[in-house]
Every structure is written in structure tokens, then in C-alpha cells.
DNA sequence: TCCGGTTTAATTGCGGACAATTCAGTCGCC
DNA sequence: GGCGACTGAATTGTCCGCAATTAAACCGGA
């Protein structure tokens, strides 16, 4: 029933190339479709999707450093520094230089930022509904994506 | 065995939100992991991944208009116009204003652009191998992604 | 104590993605 | 033929993502 990995090598180059591109292309397409849907739902909150991810992280646990945010969201300071500053300019967040280690900057919710959560909790159910997948499928998809990311990371940065 | 969609509504809000975010976040993470791998493999060719997609399209069928490229790759002119100009600056492509309809611009491979194909065909097998999924899993993944994109598109742009 | 290596943010530069606008060219309809 | 609506590219502006660099703070060992 299950096709083993070694069988991939037995495919004709054409078949392998085609399937591979379909999957990778489909991945990008789905990712952008998600972005588009989030954009339309987040417009009222004045957030972009990456900004929303940062807010989610803060709602779960306030006061992480930029470094910790980057680790959790897989983003570097080149992305996070201006993003967090935009959140600060919007009055949702406050940046504080740590006294203990003056290199690090921790990010804290303002009252306004905390209140935004109540608007935000209505969004995920609409996303889940729009995805059109049932629970089993979401679990399957998540499993496949996680394994793939793990393997890809290993391939791009070989130990 | 299979969980029906209606069961999604029976989940506690917390469960649904968490699973949804994991999936959406995983999708972005995988997408970026793919980008990183392609970037490392495409560096020798001097192409980025979106540029590579355009070249793939041209190798399959030369001379599409910018509009047709946008339809196939789901990109708009704001992305494609400068991208194609960069390919032209690199000598891989030539833009021609159509005589029949002077609004449209068709994109054609140069000799150099055609030759690049021989370098490029070595890349997909390495990507497929790096993904670490077997054929069944790739098919499953592709199916899930396609259905999701379809549903998401419908949700963001309701008829 | 000082010195070198490391860590943390921030900045710069470039390419990609999208919204919104502009402009020329096309087509239909009167 | 001429007017109005539409279409295809291009442009502008904003944000995201990453590479590479800079600068400041930290830490450890000679």
C-alpha cells in the first residue's frame, strides 16, 4: 500500500519533477491564499498576518525578547525590528530595554493591545471554516508539513 | 473513522483555534523552508524561486504574455513586471510588444535562457529528495493543499 | 584588568507580493 | 466615426523575508 522512499528513485525524471513542482507550487499558492483570507479578516484590526502572529504570541505570554519572538516565529531581527516598531507606533505594544542585559529588548502589550484580543478571537473559527478541511485532514496536513519542514531544514543547513 | 466537517463546530474554541494556527503557521514555515532550499540550489543559476517559476513556464511553452504568466503563476503585474525586467537584464529573456494588441507584452527565451534549462533540470530531484516524503504522501499533501486553496479562494472572494 | 570572541538588536539593501492608480490601447455600441 | 467601458502593463507605496553588516553589551580567560 505505502510507497517507500526508495521508489522515488525509480520514477522517471519527468514524473518526479512534475509532482515535485506541483506540490511546491501548491504550497506557495495555499500559503498566499491563506494570506489573502487573513488580510481580509484582519483589515478591521489594522494588523497584517505576521503582526497578528506576534500579537498571538504576546497574548499567550507577554514580554518576550525580540530574540525569543524570532525563535518562536522563525523570523530574524531584520523582519521583527521594523514590525515591532510598527506595532509600537500603533499603540499596541511597548518595547523595553532590559536592565539586566542591555542588549535585549522585551516586548509588552499595552492596554490597547490587550483589548484587541477580544476582536481577534473571532477570526480563527472563520479561517478554519474557510479551509474546508475536516479535523482528520487538518491533522494529516499538519503532520506532513511538520515532517517536511524538518527535513528541508536539515537539507538546507546540513550538520 | 473520518471526522465530518460538522464535528468541527463541536470542538471547544480553544482546540479549534490551536489546531488552526498550527496548520496555518506550519504552512508558512514549510513554504519558507522550501524557499531557503531553493535559494541555496538556485544561487548558482542566479535565479530566485519566483524567477525560476517563470523560467519553468517558458521552458514548457515559450512566448506567453505577462497576463498569461500571471494567470498560471497567480501573480499580478506589480510582481511580474519588475521580475521579468530583471530576467531581461540578466539576458535570459526578451520582452516584445505584440503587434496585434499593443497593450500586451510577450516574454520569450533568449538562447542563453534556453541553455539554462540544462543546469536547472538537476534541481528538482534534489528538492524532492530533501522533502523526505514518499510518493503517497506527496499525493496526499497535494490533494489537501489543492482543496484548501480552492476553498480559501472562494472564501476570500465570494461570488 | 584588558582583550577577544560571542550575543542581541538594529540597519541597509534587495527581491517578492499586493493594493491602488495611471495610461495607452481595444472593443462595442450608438 | 466617436464615445464610453474595459483590459493589459506599468508604476507607486507598503510590508514581509532574508543576507550581510554594524554597534553595543556581555563574558571568559590570560
Automatic annotation (TrEMBL), chains A, B:
Q: Which InterPro entries match?
A: HTH_MarR-typ (IPR000835), MarR/SlyA-like (IPR039422), Transc_reg_Sar_Rot_HTH (IPR055166), WH-like_DNA-bd_sf (IPR036388), WH_DNA-bd_sf (IPR036390)
**Protein name, as recorded:** MarR family transcriptional regulator
Domain of life where this protein originates:
Bacteria
Report the principal subcellular site: cytoplasm
Describe the location of the HTH marR-type domain by residue ranges.
Answer: 20-150
Q: Where in the cell is it found?
A: Cytoplasm
Q: What is the lineage of its organism?
A: Bacteria, Bacillati, Actinomycetota, Actinomycetes, Streptosporangiales
Q: Which organism is it from?
A: Actinomadura vinacea
> Keywords, A to Z?
Cytoplasm, DNA-binding, Transcription, Transcription regulation
Q: What PROSITE patterns does the entry give?
A: HTH_MARR_2
In terms of Gene3D superfamilies, this protein maps to: Winged helix-like DNA-binding domain superfamily/Winged helix DNA-binding domain
Q: What Pfam family is a match, any one?
A: Staph_reg_Sar_Rot
